Input
Amino acid sequence: EEPAEEPTEEPTEEPTEEPTEEPTEESEEEENYYGIYWSDRSKDEVETFAKRVRQEILDRDWEALSADCLYPVLVAGEWINSPEELVAVLSQADINEDFMLDVENETCEDMFANSHGSMFGNGSVWINCRVGEDPMGPYDMGVITLNLDLNLSLL
Output
């Protein structure tokens, strides 16, 4: 009598988990570049917004710029309280060429940031976030200061 063959088990493959990509310190820093000051905004969101504002200024598109401001906005040391007022002021203003050159020469990448927000154009434009309708975010992002060399009392 021949010995019965023992059943052979087919080797089973253990399911392998796809390795999850752990965030690296560099990617976390990149994502939270402005995080201390911007809470819920990524580096890309902040810089994309700044580039849009930069282009609005260079195009002298005061209507579009007025929609991207948080009011009241500080312009040439004076508070402007509404989009209409900002458009009226900027439309009548003789804007300093140094301001325009500072804005034009800005890349809007890796901008300086502190507790007041982020600035570009050698401090010509400051942007920041403010709590919007939902205190948990997303926060409203906008221009908070335009450091123009204007005499607003003449307007």
Observations:
- The two ends are 114 Å apart (CA to CA).
- The chain has a mean pLDDT of 81.
- Residues 43-58 form the longest helix (16 residues).
